[in-house]
Model the fold of this input.
Amino acid sequence: MSQMRRGALEYCVLALLARREYYGFELVQELSRVDALLTSEGTIYPLLSRLRREGLVETEWRTSPAGPPRKYYRLTPAGRAALAAFRQQWIAFRQAVDGLLDSLEGETK
Amino acid sequence: MSDDPLRPLVERYLREVADALSDLLPAQRREILDDLRTHIHDALAAVPDPDEATVRSILDRLGTPDELAREARERLGIVGSAPEPETARRPGLFETIAVVATAIVWPIGLVLVWLSESWQTRDKLVASALPLLGLALVVLWVTPIRVDSRVESYELATPVTYSPGAEPSVAPPVGTPTVLATPPSHPRTTVERANWASLLGIAILLGGSFGLPFASALYLAFQLRRPKTSALHTGGTSSFTAAGPSPRHVP
Done:
């Protein structure tokens, strides 16, 4: 289960960034709204670091009204493509699992 | 700043995280620590009147240093990422038997070694060369002993038969004692030489037939272990596929 969550989490991050640019704390707040997706908030930062290294997101430093400058994350074309591929596979996968679970549920009733 | 008295708590947490992340590359560690520091700053700024409980709750939600370190290792693929140990641990019972067999009955052991894919050809060649060298030493040692004794018997035979007849100019009474004198001194040196020779022979026989195959087995065991650590590093960096169920690049 935790592997599935970890795998899905990175595409949820990409999906959020497809909407607009976020800085770290904002992303965490958004993801925290989804139950059980982000169990430890700090784990998002190694993930973001890797997404950047893979070229799926890029970062930009911007001054903030108060406090230190913030690192904003933005989706790259490669990130957009990866998200599109995931979305397709995820839908097919979800339908397959749902179909199986539904048919088995009908059998046992 | 209202969070000044709370700073030690934050600093201690970040220090613990830094310690837990010590096996990451310095740049990666620094980046994560900076991100966490900014996160804590932002989280504190979002609360109107932060106190110690606020800080503790923020740090709690971030996760324990160990948790963060585990995630960082797996996401950034440094060491101990999930799929690596399995592939690296592939050398198993077969290789163990091969190594043990090499130490005891090396011809069988080496056949098993050559059948296994856990060693590089270079390692297999080195491992095969050692017992063969041992065998060669033993064979070379055993044969010269016969040649030597034959040579010595010739040496003994020559002076006895030829010297009196070949050198008639030398006076027979003088010639005879020399002939007599040589044989007793000769066996004595051969006996001494034979003592040393037998010690050396035992060393060569033992070393050649047991020592070198054992060294070969040790070498194989060492080579089995070495790729395991290097695989963790080279494979680790590309092991991020473990995190995602699907390919992330679309051509």
